[in-house]
Amino acid sequence: MPSVHRLSVFWKVLLVFILLIFPMYMSGVYVVMKGQSSVRDELLKAAESKGKFYISSLESQLYNAMRLQLNVLNDADIATLNRSETSISPVDRVIMLNRVRDTLRNVANMNDYIEEITVYLPSQNIKVTTQTIMPIDMNEYNIFLKNTVVENLPFCNIDGCYYINMTPEFYSQTMPYRSDNMLLVSARISQKAISSSMVSIAGVEGGGSLLISDGRGLDISSGDVKDALRDAVAAWPFDGDIAREVDINDTGYQIFFSPSQFLHSALVIYMPESGFMQTLKSFSGWIWIISALTVLLVMVFSVWIRGMIAKPLEKLIAALRQVEDGVIDVQVDYGKNDEFGYIYKQFNHLVGQLKELISDVYRKELMLKDAEFKQLQYQINPHFLYNSLLVAKGLIEFGYNDAAVQLTGHLSGYYQYITKALPGDVKLEQEIEHIRNYTEVQNIRFQGRIKCEIQEADECIKNIRVPRLILQPIVENAYKHGLKNKLNGGLLRVSFCKEQNYVHITIEDNGEELTDQVLDEMRYELSQPECIEVAGTGIKNVNDRLRIRFGRDSGVKVGRSVLGGLKADIVIYTGDEQTVCTTC
């Protein structure tokens, strides 16, 4: 759709926003139809999950009650009292019985579903409860003895109450016979506590839960339950979970049936369909409210996006078109401190940098042309050639043929280097050899008045590549200016070292011509941006070429030497090379 691509950002964003809103209207109908079903399913799953958790929790609590009863059976005081052959004084007997009662109280407090716990000691004719110590009722004892857990796991119903009865034979199945005087611990289960804990399981209005027994378990409900509902589930098998919809008296119920083999009971959760629909009715009304708010939001959004995005973009596009037309004195203003404010700020900064780069490129082009011109000047130095040839002529006339041969050899090497067309950079080793030839010629010319010391450089320093003719101009400057009036004892020293990622080439002399004013002027000129040379020597030219080639950390730094004259330190950045060299 080319027409869509030609739309502005404002209309594209608004169109996308409307397209996002439109499915909300379509989904509204879907939400009404499917929302009730999905929420209903979630409620059913939640009820089923709560039911499974509850039946598991009830099993754990009642299993814990049985474990506590076992602890009572193994109590030392009860064991002592139960042995009829043991002779116990009346005082000790009372103390032990009180301790047994305290133990029973602690046990009852440790489990919410134990309403009362009783120990029958037929050998002592005593019954101990959490509240009393009294003579035993043998009829009652015999009834409870017949309903112990070994024969009737785990519960028995006596006079409408549920009990868990335990005797020592529970954990000692090898007893040959049952004694009529057998120790008995009976725990009465709190039906009220179980009923209260089942109240909130269903989670919907009109729902509830109950426990039904398979004949040996619990029959407890959380409230009034219709007989028809109880009859509907009474015949369901206890071999697995069941979820089923049942109609009872024209009312639909969702029923969950979760049996427990340990409890011989099943938890039944029933929820009427009307309870679900009451919960879901509020959803349909909210759909239309959200839709109306969405339409209003589209209108507000269109006004906002026009002011926040469209107008700033139009202003920025107009400025970019001006720059495209060659107008670089463009500034855009934006009063807010947001993303567009940052973009406007960066645009202004970019235009400023563009102006500076254009100026810098122009300045560097002029400087490079000037540097090439200066380099040609160094290549063709007629005075040096003229003076050297005169010296050679004099040596020959006076018969110093060996010296003349040396002079012409160094002179030929010197002019071979500066006239040979070498592409690009050269090795520093070649530059060093070039100044050796130059200084040897000068030594012969000045007849020992000036001594030149050139340190041997490490291989890692010799192999770096540098622009041509960066050493000779500075060495020549020392001869022409620093040492020109030295009649004897003149010294020129050249040394090399490396400090981290920088190579330092130090050229210094012991001349007496350098004043502080001249030194300050040289420092000032070297600190200026690259431009056409204004210094009276070639040092500025070398400095500018090194800064262009290796960056602004490179160049020439001048100062006063410990020898007394000028010290020129050539600094060359070599990058991140990790080599072992003579350190500074």
UniProtKB/TrEMBL annotation:
One of its GO terms (molecular function) is phosphorelay sensor kinase activity. One of its GO terms (cellular component) is membrane. The chain crosses the membrane at residues 9-33, 286-305. Gene3D superfamilies: 6.10.340.10, Histidine kinase-like ATPase, C-terminal domain (3.30.565.10). It is found in: Membrane. It comes from Mahella australiensis (strain DSM 15567 / CIP 107919 / 50-1 BON). Keywords: Kinase, Membrane, Phosphoprotein, Transferase, Transmembrane, Transmembrane helix. The keyword Acyltransferase does not apply. Its main location: membrane. This is Signal transduction histidine kinase, LytS. The keyword Transmembrane helix applies. InterPro entries: Bact_2-comp_sensor_kinase, HAMP_dom, HATPase_C_sf, Sig_transdc_His_kin_internal. Residues 307-359 form the HAMP domain. It comes from the Bacteria. Pfam families: HAMP (PF00672), His_kinase (PF06580).
